Amino acid sequence: QVTLVESGGGLAQPGGSLRLSCVTSKGSLNYYAIAWFRQAPGKERERVSCIGAGEIAARYDYSVQGRFFLTRDKTNNTVNLQMNYLQPDDSAVYYCAAPQVSYCSPDKNHWIYWGRGTQVTVSS
Fold first, then answer.
1. Coil, helix or strand at residue 45
2. Which residues, in sequence order, are CB contacts of 66 under 8 Å at separation 6+?
3. Is residue 35 within 8 Å of residue 85, measured between CB atoms?
4. What angle is formed at CA 15 by the lines to CA 51 and CA 92, rounded to 5 degrees?
5. For residue 65, what pLDDT is reported?
6. Which of the four pLDDT bands, split at 50, 70 and 90, describes residue 2?
7. CB neighbour list of residue 14: distance below 8 Å, 6 or more residues apart
8. Among 15, 16, 22, 95, which one is least packed by beta carbons within 10 Å?
């Protein structure tokens, strides 16, 4: 079992950047696939990026490809999401999550460990 905590959200202007971090107070993130999801008001939760356990390269939803970058810091037991060229449509609560399997499962029932989320607001 792993407990996830997000940080780094806040207010950014269009075109700006924010960096989100996902840490755990128990266990090691290095053994888990980790994904960042987001949910805007009135919309379904969507996965924006994911990296499998042991993988080097992350995968991204087309909406953030080339703007968001997920990295795993094994030394500090952290998974970060660098978000660049933010747009108002990126405004949402962002969650990090881990599945009960070691890969980026498309089955949402596999994603059982969730943080409480961090708000990202992009506005001028």
1. coil
2. none
3. no
4. 55
5. 97
6. confident
7. 86, 87, 88, 122, 123, 124
8. 15
Dist CA 78 CA 76 (whole Å): 5
Give the DSSP letter of residue 15.
T
In angstroms, rounded to a whole number, what is the distance separating the alpha carbons of residues 78 and 74?
Answer: 7
User: What token pair was written down for 64?
Assistant: 């953030």
CB neighbour burial string for 84-118, b if at least 16 within 10 angstroms, e if fewer = eebeeebbbbbbbbbbeeeebbeeeeebebebebb
Beta strand residue intervals within 1-124, DSSP E: 3-7, 10-12, 18-26, 34-39, 46-51, 59-60, 68-73, 78-83, 92-99, 111-114, 118-122
How many angstroms separate the CA atoms of 95 and 102, rounded?
18
Interval 55-86: pLDDT, tens? 889 999 999 999 999 999 888 889 999 999 99
